[in-house]
Amino acid sequence: MICAGLLLLFFVLACGAAASSIQSYIGDTVHLSGYCPTSQTVYLFLTGPNLPANGVALDNINERADQGGFTQVSVDSNDRWQYDWGTGSIGGRLDAGTYTVWAVDGPNDLANLNQAQYSMISVTLSEPGLGSVSASNSPGSTVTVAESEPGILNVSSVPEDASVVVNGNYQGRSPISIPGISPGTYSVNVSRFNYETLSTTATVESGATTEVTATLRPKTGTLSINTTPEGANITLDGVFAGLSPLTLNGVFAGNHTVNATLEGYIPSESVVSVIADQSVTSTLPLAKPAFSLLPVSLTPIPAIVPLAACAGAIILFVFFRPRKGL
Predict the structure, then answer these.
(1) Chain centroid to CA 168: how far?
(2) Which pTM does this prediction carry?
(3) Which residue ranges does UniProt annotate as crossing the membrane (predicted)?
(4) What is the phi/psi pair of residue 113, to 5°?
(5) What is the 3-state secondary structure (H, E, C) of 39-92?
(6) Phi and psi (nearest 5°) for 200?
(7) Diameter of the chain by CA atoms?
(8) For 179-202, what is the mean pLDDT?
(9) Phi, psi for 255 (deg, rounded to 5)
(10) Topology of domain 4-147, per CATH?
(11) 165-174, pLDDT tens digit by residue?
(12) CA 114 from centroid of its chain's CA atoms
């Protein structure tokens, strides 16, 4: 498959102007260079007018690519390669016309590129002295081919652990660093359960790092809270929400703790799951305690005891005094 990040080639003329293709003369030397992180060898071949359909080697047009004829170039420790293609020393003569130079990370001809990573460039060769376009060099000059290095795309999110999809391909969970990204503009989607999906674009430049930070907005629902009896103080996740019954809009989707308190009743607590874009009702019953430990004031009450009840406790002493004159 084609992979611009592997061997994405940009062409810079000797005068410094950039071109999307090479226009030069037969006999010129074309300097090719590139970037290949997937192989220690780059296999070059050429297709074009009056050449075999599957290509030929750049240094000898008599060697067919479908028979193993490639121009092999070594890749250095920095994943770079370069090759000077002398269009006048190729084992034959090329006709004037437009050709394609293919750079592949394996010995694959045109018919088997689906099994390799590759890139290509269009080369238009003219006969010397027959005129040229403004992008052409003078006969015998060197045309330089320079590669565009891949960049890095870093994606983070608040909260973390969100799914990251770039150009429709799942990359992993945030935060994530994605290397080897070819320069260009990409669509980035960041999603997490119970949060709104965030979609944006990111432009990756050659050899640079692009940062994407996605702040996700929670999905919300509606929560209605009732108590029996009514008039209880309601707190949601520890924050006072009002007196029952009440309806709360814009509650974040997920689990929440509801507490209800009312004087003379035992406090009640419940965990409620709010569903995004839906309405949920929670009813908390309040009960009175089974007994009271309230302090009691004791007042002494005087007791009335009947006299008869004490008769047995009374001792009478009778004294007899003699009469005078007897």
Answers:
(1) 12
(2) 0.44
(3) 301-320
(4) -70, -20
(5) CCEEEEEEECCCCCCCCEECCCCCCEHHHCCCEEEECCCCCEEEEEEECCCCCC
(6) -150, 180
(7) 193
(8) 92
(9) -85, 140
(10) Immunoglobulin-like (2.60.40)
(11) 999 889 999 9
(12) 29
Residue matched to tokens 């810079």? 12
pLDDT of res. 306: 53
- Hey, which bits of 233-325 come out as E strands? 233-236, 239-243, 246-252, 254-261, 268-274, 279-285
Q: Which CATH number fits domain 151-215: 3.40.50.150, 2.60.40.1120, 3.90.1150.10, 2.160.10.10?
A: 2.60.40.1120
Instruction: Give the H or E element holding residue 5.
Output: helix 4-7
CA distance 115 to 226: 65
Predicted pLDDT at 23: 75
CATH of 220-285, one of 2.60.40.10, 3.40.50.2300, 3.40.190.150, 1.10.150.450: 2.60.40.10
Q: Band of the pLDDT at 227, cuts 50, 70, 90?
A: very high
pLDDT tens digits along 91-111: 888 888 899 999 999 999 999
Give the separation between CA 264 and CA 157, rounded to whole angstroms: 47
Residue 6, H or E segment: helix 4-7
Q: Backbone dihedral region of 10: left (phi > 0), alpha (psi from -120 to 50 degrees) or beta?
A: beta
Q: Which residue has the tokens 């009691």?
A: 296
The domain ranges of the chain are 4-147, 151-215, 220-285
Nearest Cα neighbor of 13 from 27, 1, 36, 31 is 31
Nearest Cα neighbor of 272 from 247, 242, 303 is 247
* Bridging pattern class, strands 239-243 and 268-274: unpaired
Q: Tens digit of pLDDT for each residue in 252-310?
A: 999 999 999 999 999 999 999 999 889 999 999 999 988 655 555 555 555 555 544 44
